[in-house]
Amino acid sequence: MFVTRLRLENWMNFRSVDVPLRPVTYLLGPNASGKSNFLDVFRFLRDISKPGAGKSGGGGIQNAIESRHGVPKIRCLHARRQTDVVIEVELADDHANPQTKWSYTLGFRVGDQNNGVSITKEVVQNLLTRENLLSRPLPEDVADARLLTQTHLEQMRSNAGFREIADCFSSVMYLHLVPQLLKHGDSIGGRQLEGDPFGQGFLDLVARTNKRQRESRLARISEGLAIAGTRLVDLEFAEDEKTPHLRARYEHHRPQGAWQLEDQFSDGTLRLIAMLWALQSDDPILLLEEPELSLHSEIVREIPALVDRAQRESMNHTQVIISTHSEALLSNPGIDPSGVLVIEPGDDGSSIRHLYEHEKNGIDAGLAVSEVVLPSVTPKSVGTLSQLTLFK
Amino acid sequence: MFAYSEDAISQAVLLRILGFIGVDVAGWTVGKTGGSGKMKSNVPKYAKLAMSYFVVLITDLDSTPCPRGLIQNWLGVVVQPRLLHIRVAVREVESWVLADREGVADFLDVSQEIVPRTPDAEADPKTALLLVAEKSGTRSVREDIVIRRGGQPRPALNYNSAITSFVGKHWNIERAIARSPSLARTCRRLQRELTPASLGDDGGCP
Fold it and tell me: I need a surface site. Which of A50, A296, A322, A348 has the fewest CB within 10 A?
């Protein structure tokens, strides 16, 4: 499954957005333009769809909204007459068969005092058969408003006809590993957020993966670490009194080297390990938020090609959405211009545009996205930031 | 429409030139290549693009004898399309900056007399600018712009941002044109090729 189109109304800083998505989509935009908020739509749908609806820490729209501190924090500040938040997603079966099959639309607003959310619309259509599988509000919703605090996406009994949509959403992978949280989680008493977006539980995730798969993934990551010049070899999983660890041998003058645990790995090494792990995860949708962080620019340069390879070789042909600021990452002239989206902040919220015709032609002429598109994403005044007076 | 310069200072200068001759850069790609090497190696790509779009490049002459030679060297076997404009600052974009003598003197807090009268004739305009900045009456200006290393004046860490900010806010391009023939030529030429009359109603898109 992959998402072919996303339409948003009043979602965070997007008042109205309607964009097609490609097997690999690059999301560009200045700081605070809404790149993370855009990615958060997919995490929101995952949070709704994952099993255990209604239970604390489980799925369901109530939990998904609560963990984002209520509908008012989600609803766009620029929203006017139209007050509902609307998310519309279209999905196709496979990259090889990109004909859109499903359309799922969810609209909601602030509920009454007892209920944080009230669903105003939930529609599922099979676009191939033109069949309407769901069109809420249903008569029973009208009779019992409490039903409108739950989506059918989160209810196994109601989503049998479109389970594959729920399955796709529930396995969205987002891993924005923050090395310090992984290394020092215990000492700072770091609470793990819904869905572990910052990778505090990355080692548990590795531990939960079946042994054969884990070993083969770590072996490939180990190869990657050698290519990246980290001097770490033989990366492996280890358990110490039921606490999961990663360890690797650090090559130095002694022939045996010295074993290091993950808390001794550099930030860049941990980020690289997490990215290579995520690329092998084979989930239908993978969100990579600024994968360039902590990595050497020459490694960052390799990311688009690495993503491409992983996608072609994975069974699910994982759809990848990458947000980035990186010149190095966007310097590969092979990046498909139709997969580049530019977020532009404005007085009326952020909008998203495709590349202009002249930008596409620039890429056709052999220039890279970094040379043709990045300049328009960079505020012209940035080069004088160091003129800022910090004292006095 | 594409406009590329080598660094932040030349980009600021190029934006001021385009503004001065009445070109609206909204919708243009205005980029920096991070050096002349990258710009030179991209020339075949710019030439391809200039079959359909205006492409303006600003570079420094540095020690090459004359602009025509530099352009020939850059193009090699590539035939220069009519819409590809390679403009060369003699010898560096700093000479165009220095050419606003009054503005530079005010900004650097020095007497006008020590700012070169004929900046295009300076063999090393960047060093000339650094030497002027060294005489600034304002300590923070000196420290921002110039530092001595091995007895030589070198650009300090804030050199780029300070000069870029000066060009954007205070540089008087009309005064500069009067003192720098190479800047005057560039403005005249770009005005003739790029202004609305020559662009037509379609804004330059063929």
Answer: A348
